[in-house]
Model the fold of this input.
Amino acid sequence: MMTPEVDAGEGRKFSSLWENRVKYTRRHRGPIVSGTSLTPTPSVAPLHLNLMMLSCEDKPPYGPSENTANMFLDLISRTRCIAWGHNDLDCEVCPSSLRENRIGDASVTITVYECKQMDYPESEDIWNSFHGILIPGSFNSAFDDLEWINFLKKVIVDKIQAKSRKTLGVCFGHQIVAHALKGDSATKCPAGPQAGVRDFELSTLGKNLLSRGSHSLPASLSLLYTHGDMVSCLPDCGISLGGNESVPIQSAAYFKPGEGDEPIPFAFTFQAHPEYCCSNGDHSFAEVVKAMEKRSQISSDERTSIMSEVEMKKELVVKDSLRATLAVCSAFCW
Done:
């Protein structure tokens, strides 16, 4: 059932899609502690992480939103398990032998808002109820002159940047954040559409920023890509975390001005898709590559070569995807 329309400012209206909005939740194992129970503090991740996803694609093979949400649920749940020292990444069942040594059940919940339908939280209280925001991929371009994209750019400025809300953007999310904060940032990739495993070298700033704490990153990351656009430049509040010859800005961090000598970014963005390494990601990636072939963005031979290389490098890609996500989760206390 649709809820009443809500004034979004400047005469615009948007509607929440459901009175009882669908939420996707994944239970996983919490921190293992010895002796007395551990009391969480503001500096550690919440046991029950509550994220919102600004969904930008409602059609397969990357969408619908349920598919995208479940990929991110698996990615972030596995990352939290790693951060809390679990070797077994089964996120639904915790062995009974460990139950007495952990702080209850942990979980990740993702609440989906449909950007293409101008669907956003109805109040500041709802915005503030989330620990962070995900902006995933889309088959649209960040520079498309569409009402929902223009409104999303305004949301990024007014609701994310202005409030320093913790945000992870991937692919289209990487491009739309830059484009919203500095016009004409997103462009077609001069090297042509990119698909498959790509390496990118972390800049010195990128390595320092993403390697805070006990989890360090290698000099380069091997991740999965499916895109035809890229970020060509960044606003003054953004820094590049690294890139390669084809796409110089593969990742970025965004800061609120005047936050001290070592500010924490309010947003991290990646051109890559770390979520492809998790639940249903193999299938989604393969289908997106097929779609790129159908659109004549890549050839049949290229698709065959891409899939062969992905299979050969799968272990490294999964490891680096989790490493990159862990760096973000650690910085955001997710």
Notes: Residues 1-16, 35-42, 88-100 have pLDDT under 50 and may be disordered. DSSP finds nine helices and 14 strands in the chain.
